[in-house]
Amino acid sequence: MPQDHLAAPTVLEEHRKLAVFAGEWAGEEVVFPSRWIAGGPATSHVVARMDLNGLYLIQDTRQMRDGKESFATHGVFTYDREDRHY
Fold first, then answer.
1. Pairing with 68, which of 5, 27, 54, 75 sits 20 to 30 Å away (CA)?
2. CA–CA distance, 83 with 60 (Å, rounded to integer)
3. Are residues 30 and 24 in contact, defined by beta-carbon separation less than 8 angstroms?
Protein backbone atom coordinates (compact mmCIF):
# COMPACT_ATOMS: atom_id res chain seq x y z
CA MET A 1 0.00 0.00 0.00
CA PRO A 2 1.52 3.40 -0.93
CA GLN A 3 2.41 5.76 1.89
CA ASP A 4 0.14 8.79 2.31
CA HIS A 5 2.59 11.74 2.36
CA LEU A 6 -0.21 14.17 3.21
CA ALA A 7 -1.16 12.38 6.43
CA ALA A 8 0.01 13.97 9.67
CA PRO A 9 3.21 12.32 10.90
CA THR A 10 3.13 10.29 14.09
CA VAL A 11 5.49 10.93 16.99
CA LEU A 12 8.21 8.29 17.17
CA GLU A 13 10.25 7.27 20.20
CA GLU A 14 13.15 9.22 18.64
CA HIS A 15 11.06 12.40 18.82
CA ARG A 16 10.16 11.69 22.46
CA LYS A 17 13.87 11.41 23.31
CA LEU A 18 14.31 15.09 22.43
CA ALA A 19 12.23 15.97 25.51
CA VAL A 20 15.28 15.35 27.70
CA PHE A 21 16.56 18.73 26.46
CA ALA A 22 13.32 20.59 27.28
CA GLY A 23 13.59 22.94 30.24
CA GLU A 24 15.30 26.10 31.39
CA TRP A 25 18.98 26.51 32.20
CA ALA A 26 21.40 29.29 33.03
CA GLY A 27 25.15 29.01 33.26
CA GLU A 28 28.59 30.44 32.65
CA GLU A 29 30.59 29.86 29.50
CA VAL A 30 33.77 30.95 27.74
CA VAL A 31 33.54 32.71 24.38
CA PHE A 32 36.52 32.02 22.18
CA PRO A 33 37.85 34.98 20.20
CA SER A 34 36.94 35.27 16.54
CA ARG A 35 36.98 37.94 13.87
CA TRP A 36 33.51 39.02 15.09
CA ILE A 37 34.02 39.20 18.86
CA ALA A 38 36.70 39.26 21.53
CA GLY A 39 36.96 36.21 23.75
CA GLY A 40 36.05 36.14 27.40
CA PRO A 41 33.47 35.04 29.96
CA ALA A 42 29.71 35.10 29.34
CA THR A 43 26.49 33.78 30.82
CA SER A 44 23.72 32.12 28.89
CA HIS A 45 20.04 31.46 29.51
CA VAL A 46 18.37 28.64 27.55
CA VAL A 47 14.64 27.91 27.34
CA ALA A 48 13.61 24.82 25.38
CA ARG A 49 10.24 23.15 24.89
CA MET A 50 8.64 20.37 22.90
CA ASP A 51 6.07 21.79 20.48
CA LEU A 52 4.27 21.30 17.16
CA ASN A 53 2.52 18.05 18.09
CA GLY A 54 5.58 16.69 19.91
CA LEU A 55 7.70 16.50 16.78
CA TYR A 56 10.07 19.42 17.48
CA LEU A 57 12.25 20.76 20.27
CA ILE A 58 12.29 24.56 20.05
CA GLN A 59 15.13 26.33 21.85
CA ASP A 60 15.83 30.00 22.55
CA THR A 61 19.22 31.06 23.91
CA ARG A 62 20.40 34.47 25.08
CA GLN A 63 24.03 35.17 25.90
CA MET A 64 25.02 38.09 28.14
CA ARG A 65 28.40 39.82 28.36
CA ASP A 66 29.16 42.85 30.50
CA GLY A 67 25.47 43.21 31.41
CA LYS A 68 24.31 43.35 27.76
CA GLU A 69 22.88 40.76 25.40
CA SER A 70 25.69 39.81 23.05
CA PHE A 71 24.19 36.88 21.15
CA ALA A 72 20.79 35.22 20.71
CA THR A 73 19.73 32.10 18.84
CA HIS A 74 16.57 30.22 18.02
CA GLY A 75 17.01 26.53 17.34
CA VAL A 76 14.60 23.93 16.00
CA PHE A 77 15.50 20.25 16.40
CA THR A 78 13.68 17.15 15.17
CA TYR A 79 14.26 13.60 14.04
CA ASP A 80 14.30 12.83 10.32
CA ARG A 81 12.61 9.47 9.98
CA GLU A 82 13.88 8.93 6.42
CA ASP A 83 17.56 9.77 7.04
CA ARG A 84 17.42 8.51 10.65
CA HIS A 85 19.30 11.55 11.95
CA TYR A 86 18.51 14.33 14.39
1. 75
2. 26
3. no
